[in-house]
Amino acid sequence: MGAGVSSWRLARAVSQLGQLGVVSGTALDLILARRLQDGDPGGYMRRGFDRFPNREMADRIWRTYYIPGGKPPRAPYKSVPTHSKNCPIELQELCVVANFVEVTLAREGHNNAVGINYLEKIQLPHLPSIYGAMLAGVGYVLVGAGVPLKIPGVLDRFANHEPSTYLLQVTGANEDDDRTLAFTPKAFLPYDLPLLTRPKFIAIISSNTLATTMLKKADGKVDGFVIEGYTAGGHNAPPRGKLQLDASGEAIYGERDVVDLGKIRGLGSPFWLAGGYGSPEKLAQALAAGATGVQVGTAFAFCEESGLENSRKHLLLEKARSVTARVFTNPVASPTGFPFKVAELEGTLSEEEVYAARPRICDLGYLREAYTTPSGTIDFRCSAEPVTTYVAKGGKVEDTEGKKCLCNALMANIGHPQVRNGKYKEQPLITSGNDLTEISRFLPSGSFTYSAADVVAKLMSCTG
Ligand SMILES: Cc1cc2nc3c(=O)[nH]c(=O)nc-3n(C[C@H](O)[C@H](O)[C@H](O)COP(=O)(O)O)c2cc1C
Fold first, then answer.
1. I need a labelling partner for 245 at 20 to 30 A (CA). Which of 77, 163, 334, 439 fits?
2. Going by DSSP bridges, is the β-strand pair 369-372/419-420 parallel, antiparallel, or unpaired?
3. Model-level pTM?
């Protein structure tokens, strides 16, 4: 769960329990830079840095961002360079180290596998991120939000420390335009390193067609699928056909959006079901349908080990307990264009007044779309950036309506909000699956919080 909700701490707790803990690989460069500017409470990042094979590279990053004791609360975080096609070397280094540290910490204290999740909508950081995670021994790479046909080949090449390229999706590009992202491991770690284990690659999909396409056209082995339904937290695949909204403005899903599990079984690959499978009954149902298991998000997002900032986490848990929690499938909020599930909570961007009070600033840029300018170069635009800027870049004004800056909100969700001019503090926008209303089932009696172990114990009670 991005960004930073499935932190190393949560993934480690889940893997320690014998399940597959998955860290979010989204924006780990920025998260690491902010953790260091908060003074690295607990010294965990330092521990991860000390394990990185290139000491000088790790030291450069440490010196750039670490603030002993943390920055003053009203001071802004220092910015991190934004990603682009020819990404600055220091940003690539930050990505490698951040992914390495997150996976290294998640793997501490047990011998079970740890996975990492990336979004195909955020391609620019892919190569240095994947290499950093593989250096730390990541066991599974899970990629959704797009058609990640070229990830398996990257995993194969990086296992041998070979250079790899990745074709950037660019709106309006011609076939022969240069859209190639490149990464050469030896330029960052010029040593004779032992070969790496190629992680298993799991594609996250929401349609039978996409599963078949992945198996037919991917440039390497697809080891399985997570099949994610439209009740899942985070982004959802858009409904098939023309977008229809109900009276409250929520995207309506129907029969055509349900994956045919019979056909999936016929493909012969292992699969896991996601989206409302966080209960013993649903796990039993998934196993009976031939799934290897389930992928659960919402139940873990609100447990003690998750990266969600505690006060908001507890408020939503309380809403769930008092049966007042509500999740809205917002069809327009996300600059990706995908419906995005939002947990309604006072003081967050789920409220119109809070959203209206935010200066429309785009300074993180993870969800920007690459496009070809009239002069043939590649530039980037985000439908949540200032409207005039977006339109000047050829974007349509109607696409900017209701768009929310998820990059800044998601940093606020995990306790790293940017502060602007010492005054405006970025506010959260918390995502959750529809299962939010059910999470009080994990509370041990008399307790107001629950742990990852409580979730796993409850789920596994179906298997006796
Ligand atoms: C807070 C939160 C953040 C999420 N972020 C991501 C993400 O960054 N990438 C992704 O592939 N899925 C993401 N998801 C979806 C989960 O990985 C998982 O598939 C989903 O939550 C399962 O359904 P459930 O929420 O009903 O348990 C997120 C879910 C939640 C609740």
1. 439
2. unpaired
3. 0.96
Asked whether the beta carbons of 48 and 58 are under 8 A apart, the reply is no
Cis-peptide, bond into residue 187, ω within 30° of zero: no
- Average pLDDT for residues 261-274, to the nearest whole number? 96
Tokens of 142: 């899970």
Ligand 1 pocket test, candidate residues 1, 327, 410, 439, most atoms within 8 A of CB: 1
CB-count exposure of residue 156 (10 Å: 0-12, 13-18, 19+): middle
Q: Whose CA is nearest to atom 10 of ligand 1?
A: 1
User: Number of helices and strands (H, E) in the chain?
Assistant: 17, 15
Looking from the CA of residue 431, the nearest atom of ligand 1 is 1
* Residue 240 · residue 292 · CB < 8 Å: no
Q: Which of 281, 233, 270, 134 is nearest to 193 (CA)?
A: 134
Q: Which long-range contacts (CB under 8 A, 24 or more apart) does 309-312 make?
A: 309/412, 309/413, 309/414, 309/415, 309/428, 312/345, 312/348, 312/413, 312/428, 312/430
117 Cβ inside 6 Å of ligand 1: yes
Q: Where are the alpha helices (DSSP H) in 54-163?
A: 55-65, 89-106, 126-135, 151-159
Full DSSP string of 243-282: --B-TTSPBP--GGGS--HHHHHHHT--EEEESS--SHHH
Question: How many whole angstroms separate alpha carbon 346 and alpha carbon 392?
Answer: 34
Give me 150's structure tokens: 């070229």
Cβ of 428 below 6 Å from ligand 1: no
Q: How far is the CA of 232 from the centre of ligand 1 (A)?
A: 6
pLDDT for the residue numbered 464: 54
> Tens digits of per-residue pLDDT, 31-87?
999 999 999 999 999 999 999 999 999 999 999 999 999 999 999 999 999 999 989
Quote the CA–CA distance of 93 and 60 in Å, as a whole number. Answer: 9
- CA 300 / ligand 1 centre spacing (Å): 10
Comparing CA positions, the residue from 243, 226, 230, 159 lying closest to residue 199 is 159
CA trace torsion 421, 422, 423, 427 (10° rounding): 100
Distances in whole angstroms, Cα of residue 195 to Cα of each of 103, 277, 395: 18, 37, 45
Show the tokens assigned to 148.
């990640």
